[in-house]
Input
Amino acid sequence: MILITGANGQLGTELRYLLDERNEEYVAVDVAKMDITNEEMVEKVFEEVKPTLVYHCAAYTAVDAAEDEGKELDFAINVTGTKNIAKASEKHGATLVYISTDYVFDGKKPVGQEWEVDDRPDPQTEYGRTKRMGE
Output
């Protein structure tokens, strides 16, 4: 079974559309069904769903707010929450697909050049740092 976290966000919504087009079965959860910062809640959902594949789309994405008033929530979701998902995935033998961001890089590549998997991360924002920590 496929489990999608952050299913009502931008990435989660698009992923659900793609899986629907392919007639794939999945369970889609958002914060109301599984607060990823709550380890016990995460474990309960994993026990119920028994996923073999997890698309971890849940994230704190308010880039500007992450620098100030949203800093604690940014860390809680992007670092602690991701850690909870990774631990549960490992415990239950599920493959984890983590969705990161180009904010883990410094943004200094010329326009039109894409980031590569082996490029050196150098986040310049709090959001980029927490997403990198989640990796």
